[in-house]
Amino acid sequence: MQKLRKPWRVISLVVLGLILGEGIYLARTPDETLVLDRKLRSRLTPERIDRNLSSTTRWSQWFSSLAQVQGPAEVKIGTVVTLKIDPKKGQRKRFELQAQVLDYVPARLLRLRITDDTSGRLTRLFDNLEWTIEIEPTAKGSSIRGIAQAHTRHWRSRLFGRLAEKILMNQVFYPNLIQLADREQPYTVDEAPHQPESLY
Predict the structure, then answer these.
(1) Residue 12, exposed/middle/buried by CB under 10 A (0-12, 13-18, 19+)?
(2) Which pLDDT score, from 0 to 100, does residue 193 have?
(3) 3-state DSSP assignment of residue 100
(4) Rounded to an integer, what distance in angstroms lies between the CA atom of residue 2 and that of residue 24?
(5) CA distances, 149 to each of 34, 62, 65 (Å)
(6) What is the dihedral of CA 171, 175, 176, 179, to 10 degrees?
(7) pLDDT in tens, 117-139
(8) Do the beta carbons of residue 83 and residue 100 sit within 8 Å?
């Protein structure tokens, strides 16, 4: 039995060495832009969907882990808001993202850039992170496209971007397209929806 174990031990060490070597190589590759591109259909018209985009007071209804938005309610180019993120894993896990509206076309397009991150996790991995939501009318409602673009700046983002780009980008894309596609805001309500009380 001992004679049989030694070859397998050698093979295991060789495989481990190859994996480590590949990881080191990938970590040293040049920085690059990672992309997540997702599409889904909605029964809602672009105008209905835009009611979720046009006011930051409604973003917490369709952003993942978003507890509250601080800043102007009206969405327009140049608007800067603070996104209070609460993953529901205790107070130490809460953090804030600062987002700037780069582009907004009612019922068509919303593009955000993350400019600051109090946890340091996103800004440590990427020197640029943008979220884009595009809406197109269809015969039965709308087509929603969500795009996340991130430019790496750290060996970890380069490594995991090469090994598991989709998984990594899913973790840094907070707009929830499924909730956005189903969230219908009534036209009869003029006042902004109630903001949840701050947990901070």
Answers:
(1) exposed
(2) 46
(3) strand
(4) 33
(5) 6, 20, 20
(6) 170
(7) 999 999 999 999 999 999 999 99
(8) no
- Tokens representing 3? 């004679």
Looking up tokens 């993953």, which residue turns up? 87
Nearest to 136 by CA among 176, 110, 107, 111: 107
Alpha-carbon span 126 to 34, nearest angstrom: 10
Residue 67 near residue 60, CB atoms below 8 Å = yes
Q: pTM of this prediction? A: 0.79
Buried b (16+ CB within 10 A) or exposed e, 15-24: eeeeeeeeee
Smallest Cα–Cα separation from 152: which of 123, 173, 174, 132? Answer: 123
Please check whether residue 129 is in contact with residue 113, taking contact to mean a CB–CB distance below 8 angstroms.
yes
Residue (of 119, 116, 118, 114) closest to 129 by Cα position: 114
Mean pLDDT across 72-76: 96
Inform me whether the pLDDT recorded for 6 exceeds 70. Answer: no
> What percent of the chain is modeled with pLDDT above 90?
66
Cβ contact 126:171 at 8 Å:
no
Residue 56 CB neighbour total at 10 angstroms: 23
Residues 60/73, Cβ–Cβ less than 8 Å = no
Tell me the pLDDT band of 16, cut-offs 50, 70 and 90: low
